């Protein structure tokens, strides 16, 4: 006789709002870094990940580091310090810092997805599969395109808070 692990339903009322683990990663590419990072962190709790506290701490510390890179890049660019330090290659340094900011955000959300993917796949087998969350992705994209520029008229100076979208 073979032992079979009983199927365990996730605990809590909010567990039904969990989405597939990779969905916040796609929202990072289409929308912005901050909302996708928050979504991925909340999704860890909704999925019932054992290391949800670790993922939350990783998200907070990682966001602080990546946002500091973005803030420093914007400050150094707007103040002209990059040209003062690097001369004509200041534009290149600005582009490299921007790339580090974008890649840092993508890598952070990808690490969180990697921690959640097995549990999300298991949860998808327990009855109905987990949703993709297309509505939430659409709301993030609409906020990125229409709401955030109206709320922050000087958005270029503080874009590092929300995170740039890729489209």
Write structural notes for this entry.
By secondary structure, this protein is mainly α. 71% of the residues lie in helices and 0% in strands. Helix 1 runs antiparallel to helix 2 and helix 1 packs parallel to helix 6. The radius of gyration is 19 Å and the shape is elongated.
Brief digest:
The chain has helices at residues 23-30, 33-47, 52-79, 81-86, 90-124, 134-151, 155-162.
Number of strands: 0
* Rg measurement, Å: 19 Å
Counting copies of identical and different chains, the oligomeric state is single chain
How much beta, percentage-wise?
under 5%
Structural class: mainly alpha
Largest sheet: none
Helix content: over 70%
Count the helices. How many? 7
H/E order of the elements? HHHHHHH
User: pLDDT average, as an integer?
Assistant: 83
Low-pLDDT sequence parts:
none
Distance between the termini: 55 Å
Overall geometry comes to: elongated
Keywords, separated by commas or semicolons:
mainly alpha, 0% strand, single chain, 167 residues
Secondary-structure blueprint:
Blueprint (H helix, E strand, L loop, with lengths): L22 H8 L2 H15 L4 H28 L1 H6 L3 H35 L9 H18 L3 H8 L5
